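Sample pair:
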Amino acid sequence: MKLISALIFCLMLSSVGGAFAQGKAPAFTKADTLRGKLTPLRSSYDINYYHLDVKVDITNRFISGSNVFKFTTTEDLQRLQFDLFANLAVDKVIYKGNNLPFKREFNAVFIDFPGLIKKGNKEEFTVFYSGNPTVARRAPWEGGFSFSQDKQGKPWVGVSCQGFGASSWWPTKDHQSDEVDSMMISISVPDGLMDVSNGRLRSTEKLTNGYTRYNWFVSYPINNYSVTLNIADYVHFDDSYAGENGNLTLDYYVLRENLDKAKKQFGANVKPMLKVFENWFGPYPFYRDGFKLIDAPYLGMEHQSAVAYGNKYLNGYMGSDLSGTGYGLKWDYIIIHEAGHEWFGNNITSKDIADMWIHEGFTMYSEGLFVESIDGKKAGAKYIAGVRKKVANDSPIIGPYDVNTEGSSDMYYKGANLVHTLRTIVDDDAKWRSILRGLNKDFGLKTTTTNEVVKYINAKSGKDLTKTFDQYLRYSGVPELEYKVTPGNVSYRWVSQVPGFDMPVRILNGNKSQWIKPSTEWKTMKLKTSFTPDLENFFITVKKVN
């Protein structure tokens, strides 16, 4: 059996995405595969509903509770896998009133049912658990719980776990491909404090042990890492927005010392953001659950309908402009960026975090659209071009599949420039807007892949952009346009890591422009003036050769 397990594990590792095939393959473990691969023990059931019920003992940094799994079998099964970090105890698993046997391996938990469950059956079990969750060392980049205090010395607690794993604090099927259809989140906190989670507050219950339970209901599919809790002595204020799908409630939960600042900052940013993003991306995806901003003890996170905010009520990114253009100091970066994820990340979610560029590239691009709404299209292009200085070109944006590993952080800056380059190639803003809105309509409340997104944009644009996507996503570099000038002529070609790379590019000539379609072979055309590629709208390098 050990030999068979080892062989299976080696076969699993051999399926790691080809994006990293260019260089030395990273070293992955069986734990990475158990977490990242959608094996038959996970794909054989579809999650329909969770009821997560957790008590948070802030003093001891201890959590305890349960989660109900309601699911439909997609294949016959007798065993399945769910996930919970090894530092948290599985106290028991209950199925039809009886304890189920379970086995743990790293952060995976395997349960065995007493008999075969046939395909199409609806079943449920409940996991009871407890322990001290991981405390984040550098939230939100390194996930876990954040324990802090407000200025009055009262507890202020949050959690962030994107990439790190929702199973770091609650038992779940921890794979992005399967979003639960709806869920109840019940968080019990010490009296005098409040919990704010995703969705709508259904009720509060005064318990007998000095705790109060807050019951929040999420009525839409939600990815695991978006599920959240926020605990503090919050003060609440609200507003509403007349949006594309009617009246959208806006609810704000902030520390008492931040109330006046929050009213000013949220008022200046939220409605303009919604106007811009609804125009370009379509209706806010979660009208039934509303939109919330919540003071968090870390910088921010795109928790669905409950966006965590920690930008200190400053414009820019903690008071700085990532683009260096000055445009980024006219708005609050965390509000705009994290709320943009409601469309790209929460509405549209990648099946594997290797494809996280779908979340981050489009969302950073949305910042340029917001700049455009304030200062015009050219300013938006300058903002996106300005973030290129942060591109490392260290490794591909797409990470290795099936091992819960993201690609390069270039998914943000290079990803945004890829999306802007695509808009420029489409060269029709009405069509481009319909593509962005179409993505959110056709892939909304679903999980998807890079290949599906590429196929969709190719079809809707009427252009085969596959090689462009490949260069920016699957390789570490950017394409270089080589050219050489002879009397009256210019010759040009692409130098690219993609065989047959043929991305069209725009050449500027004063107030006029023309399109050329270089390939990896030299082409020649007449040249009346200078050869000036449009570097503001194309993320490329240019090299003059002899």
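Residues 97 and 125 are 9 Å apart (CA to CA).
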